[in-house]
Write a structure and sequence with these properties.
single chain; about 250 residues; alpha+beta; Catalase HpII,  Chain A, domain 1; eight-stranded antiparallel β-barrel; 4 helices; 10 strands; about 30% strand; Phosphodiesterase; Catalase_sf
Length: about 250
């Protein structure tokens, strides 16, 4: 007697790494009623002054001087409590970067400044002790470069708690130097970012930053890990929506 194996394995597909990440992100976001990573934060508005330097990048936004309104959000990556070391996130939404109604999202994480450490998340006790970088490179025109925001050298000591960050923002503006570093090269200045006072947003008004949805045709993340990251962002948003429906 022979065994019919024509349907064997059809319903036993093993989830891919992307699928596992998406499931985890959705579950965590649903449980938290907040993003899976960087769940809680401090928001403020700011101004980004683009100040081109050196050869053209081939991206109009970076090659033309201009001032742009920015919505900013600081957060702790894992959401650990108190003053425990945690990587810090700095999310930026640059309004009108691609023209009227076309915004640009940049997600930056506390990192080192060296040619290798600028690609690695770095837990930090002082929120302004070093740069915030995209960790992975961006395609800028025909170039490839990492983007980062460097706190002004005169920045005060700011313990990494969200309450302390809010108090610091209330005390006065903070200044960052936006820069880009091509592979194996030093930083090249792009402009200056200045913060405004903090504001608290209701949960339903919290901005969902996504560099894969909100990018420019000639300024966007490279393809490295893009599928994994896009799936995680989408699943996190879906988990938050599901949590909202369940609570309504």
């Amino acid at each position: 007697m022979t065994q019919d194996t024509s349907t064997a394995g059809k319903h036993t597909k093993t989830p891919t790494g992307t699928g596992l990440v998406a499931r985890a992100a959705r579950s965590i976001a649903h449980w938290r009623h907040a993003p899976a990573l960087h769940p809680f934060g401090v928001s403020c508005d700011g101004v980004l002054a683009v100040q081109p330097s050196g050869p053209a990048w081939g991206e109009p936004w970076l090659d033309t001087p201009g001032d742009y309104q920015v919505r900013m959000r600081w957060s702790r990556a894992v959401g650990l409590p108190g003053r425990l070391p945690d990587a810090l996130g700095l999310a930026l939404r640059v309004h009108g970067a691609g023209g009227p109604g076309r915004s640009l999202d940049l997600l930056l994480t506390s990192s080192g400044a060296g040619r290798r450490t600028r690609h690695l998340p770095l837990p930090r006790l002082d929120a302004l002790a070093g740069p915030y970088s995209t960790l992975l490179s961006y395609r800028i025109g025909e170039h490839e470069a990492l983007l980062a925001a460097h706190p002004d050298m005169t920045s005060p000591l700011v313990p990494n708690g969200l309450a302390t960050l809010r108090t610091t923002l209330q005390a006065g503006p903070l200044t960052f130097r936006l820069g880009a570093a091509p592979p194996g090269q030093g930083w090249r200045a792009l402009g200056t970012l200045t913060t405004g006072p903090p504001h608290d947003l209701p949960a339903e008004d919290t901005v969902s930053y996504d560099p894969y949805l909100n990018h420019l045709p000639r300024l966007h993340p490279t393809a490295r890990f893009s599928g994994l990251r896009e799936a995680a962002y989408a699943a996190s948003r879906a988990g938050r929506r599901a949590a909202g429906r369940a609570g309504s």
